[in-house]
Amino acid sequence: MAAFSATKCPSYSYSSSINGGQKQRFAFSSSSSLRFSAPAKAKVFLQSPRDSHQAAVLMQDGVVVSEVIHKEIETPKENSKDDLLSFTSTKELDVKAGFDGNENESTVSITVVGASGDLAKKKIFPALFALYYEDCLPKHFTIYGYARSKMTDAELRNMVSKTLTCRIDKRENCSEKMDQFLKRCFYHSGQYDSEENFSQLDKKLKKQELSASSGNGWTRVIVEKPFGRDSESSAVLTKALKQYLAEDQIFRIDHYLGKELVENLSVLRFANLIFEPLWSRRYIRNVQLIFSEDFGTEGRGGYFDNYGIIRDIMQNHLLQILALFAMETPVSLDAEDIRNEKVKVLRSMRPLRLEDVVVGQYKSHSRGGVTYPSYTDDKTVPKDSLTPTFAAAALFIDNARWDGVPFLMKAGKALHNRGAEIRVQFRHVPGNLYNRNFGTDLDRATNELVIRVQPDEAIFLKINNKVPGLGMRLDLSNLNLHYAARYSKEIPDAYERLLLDAIEGERRLFIRSDELDAAWALFTPVLAELEEKKIIPESYPYGSRGPVGAHYLAARYNVRWGDLDIEQ
Ligand SMILES: NC(=O)C1=CN([C@@H]2O[C@H](COP(=O)(O)OP(=O)(O)OC[C@H]3O[C@@H](n4cnc5c(N)ncnc54)[C@H](OP(=O)(O)O)[C@@H]3O)[C@@H](O)[C@H]2O)C=CC1
Ligand SMILES: O=C1O[C@H](COP(=O)(O)O)[C@@H](O)[C@H](O)[C@H]1O
């Protein structure tokens, strides 16, 4: 397990493990699954279509997967799970037979599906560049963008080049590295359901892969959330994926699991004696999971309007954080052990009721001479859309540890700030000797642990402290671990970590299908009710703190949103 605390690249990396030979490759392995270091050739598909049903269609048609698998397996049978298993065991044989891991023979081909979109531009290409810069990609790699939009290779490179940056501490040869990286990026335009278009792509990939000598390798598909719209469509998607892929080839990505402070949650809890004893209903009064963005959909409403904020953020990002926060101690840091614990939490959750949900939608607002648009001003959104751009919810985990503790979630677009945080509010000190020093508002004197996921990562603990002086005045002060002050290294983007993990076959931070089922079981009934009853979202002005209903919801459970206090 020590491998997890080591720096990923170069010490825990594809390239160093390749160069380090077979033994070292496995020494770094934290799970029984095979690592990328074994095969000499591989393909990774990054699936990021706007509509997850597209993914289902894509997989059902078997275009990407069956095509590749047929070419990769020497003796392909039917497209069955058994085939994939025999494929896996072939890889294992390779490893056991002592594949020498010659770096020159290694190649990875990455296809970014939906490459013309926001995610590809903003996160995936920059993350791949960062991995390239850090020498975390194999020597021979090719990246293909794939989408319906017409683009030449040069146009893709131009689009991508605008979003590439080097880390502040890594400016050396930056533009040269960018040029080298862009030369490895190509584009192929095609439909998502066209076998012919994907075959053309496959031919192009093969051309690029000529320098790799091995006839086998692995194929992994990274699928973006949201995985369906509800339990039923998610099951269809899972079934379609499993028709062609074994579960260990499917990487359901939730990039919040790759954020530094979310990864740190388990460290904070399980590597420090002081927190774990407090981590229960006995000491914790409520937990708040808060996501906010200070911009609206801005032209991306086409994707968003079909999903809404509950499916876009709550059912995945915030719920995953909740599961990690609340799980019991896993047997080990192995992917399956962690996910076993997360799924238990999700299955212990009380079904979410409509009365425990508040939905909102932003409206136009003018400030400082600038008029900010309504959600429905977005040209890609129907004028009468009832899709929530804000939601707050009160959730409960009906198990011995968390019985009765409200877990409050809040997520919204076009709010007053951008941020994501976890707030843990502790109970009042019983029989507090200093009660009279606090006045009547005991809430202001409760301890609060804040894990600020972004921006400006920090962990701080609010404690009561004596204000220095001759009198006896107390104030609430922060014990503050401010990352920028403590660590000089820039924090990698979540996609860097997760793409590297997928390349290395590390599944710890990806969603297993039973976790997904449990997550949908929790939200599907309430989502259906919201839609059937055509619940009208509460309006809130663009740039505000969200609808007032969120305060009433919290107050019903005796909670005050911590992010709205003046001193946060
Ligand atoms: N944007 C972000 O920061 C993040 C996004 N995601 C996820 O990534 C996925 C894509 O989001 P994002 O890139 O923001 O979305 P965009 O709308 O910006 O881009 C999606 C791309 O997919 C293609 N596409 C496929 N099917 C459709 C369709 N039915 N309608 C329109 N376009 C379609 C389009 O390309 P073309 O028309 O050329 O085929 C488009 O460029 C979503 O599942 C989202 O949840 C996850 C994390 C962060
Ligand atoms: O998954 C998504 O996340 C982004 C926010 O990601 P962040 O890392 O920038 O916080 C959100 O804008 C998008 O709507 C959603 O699909």
Molecular structure report:
The strands form 3 sheets. The protein has a 9-stranded mixed β-sheet with strand order 16-15-14-13-7-12-11-8-18, sandwiched between helices. It is α/β, with parallel strands linked by helices and 568 residues long. Mean pLDDT is 81; it is low at 1-8, 10-42 and 47-104. It is globular, with a radius of gyration of 25 Å. The protein has helices at residues 2-5, 14-27, 52-61, 63-72, 81-96, 118-133, 153-161, 174-183, 195-208, 231-244, 260-270, 301-304, 308-326, 335-347, 435-438, 483-486, 494-504, 513-532, 549-556; strands at residues 41-47, 107-113, 140-147, 185-189, 217-224, 250-253, 284-292, 357-363, 365-367, 370-372, 390-395, 407-412, 419-426, 448-454, 458-466, 474-482, 510-511, 538-541. The site of the ligand O=C1O[C@H](COP(=O)(O)O)[C@@H](O)[C@H](O)[C@H]1O has 3 residues, from loops.
The distinct ligands, each listed once, are:
NADPH dihydro-nicotinamide-adenine-dinucleotide phosphate, ligand LXAUTJHC
Given as residue ranges, the uncertain stretches (5+ residues, pLDDT < 50) are: 1-8, 10-42, 47-104
First and last CA, distance: 36 Å
User: What is the strand arrangement across the widest sheet?
Assistant: 16-15-14-13-7-12-11-8-18
